[in-house]
């Protein structure tokens, strides 16, 4: 895989959130270098700087890893996964306090979900949870 922030080579300022988000994902100095230079970097480097989860030797390895990861996530409460996704996305967009307020609201909704009951029941009975499909 190859990555770059090419807007600088087009003589424009990146305007789709790259400048705002990249420094939140990787070291600020690395983000500056990548944004200022527009240089292309590899999947291995993306993994090393924390931009990518992992670099794989082949597309088959990447697909296998993605499938295993998705199977692991699919075993979790769908409502909780949705809440986590929204929280993580919100964290990139908002400050810490706003994000904590958002998490409070998400978790208040979780208290009334059947997923919470199913989680505790499955833990009590030492079995895998069987979450309702939404």
Quick gist of this model?
With 134 residues, the chain is mainly alpha-helical. The protein is 61% helix and 3% strand. Strands 1-2 form a two-stranded antiparallel ribbon.
List the helices and strands and how they pair.
Blueprint: E1 2-3, H1 18-25, H2 28-37, E2 41-42, H3 43-48, H4 59-74, H5 78-93, H6 96-110, H7 114-124
Antiparallel strand pairs: 1-2
Helix pairs in contact: 1-2, 5-6
Provide a descriptive summary of the structure in words.
With 134 residues, this protein is mainly α. Helix content is 61%, strand content 3%. The chain contains seven helices and two strands, in the order βααβααααα. The chain has helices at 18-25, 28-37, 43-48, 59-74, 78-93, 96-110, 114-124, and strands at 2-3, 41-42. It has a two-stranded antiparallel ribbon. Helix 1 (18-25) runs antiparallel to helix 2 and helix 5 packs antiparallel against helix 6. It is flat, with a radius of gyration of 19 Å.
Order of H and E elements? EHHEHHHHH
- End-to-end Cα distance: 34 Å
Computed CA radius of gyration, to the nearest angstrom: 19 Å
Shape: flat
Number of helices: 7
In total, how many beta strands?
Answer: 2
Compute the average pLDDT.
88
- Give the DSSP E fraction (strand runs of 2 or more residues): under 5%
Main β-sheet, spatial strand arrangement: 1-2
**Structural class, from helix and strand content?**
mainly alpha
Into which percent range does the helicity of residues fall? 55-70%
Query: The biggest beta sheet, please?
Result: 2 strands, antiparallel
Poorly predicted residue ranges: none
């Amino acid at each position: 895989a190859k990555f770059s922030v090419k807007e600088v080579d087009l003589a424009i300022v990146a305007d789709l959130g790259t400048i705002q988000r990249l420094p939140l994902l990787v070291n600020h100095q690395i983000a500056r270098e990548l944004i200022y230079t527009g240089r292309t970097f590899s999947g291995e480097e993306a993994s090393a700087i924390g931009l990518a989860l992992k670099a794989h030797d082949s597309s088959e390895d990447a697909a296998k890893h993605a499938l295993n990861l998705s199977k692991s996530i699919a075993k979790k409460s769908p409502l909780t996964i949705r809440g986590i996704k929204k929280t993580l996305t919100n964290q990139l967009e908002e400050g810490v306090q706003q994000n904590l307020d958002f998490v409070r609201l998400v978790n208040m909704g979780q208290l009334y979900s059947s997923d919470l009951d199913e989680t505790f029941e499955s833990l009590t009975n030492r079995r895998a949870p069987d979450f309702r499909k939404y």
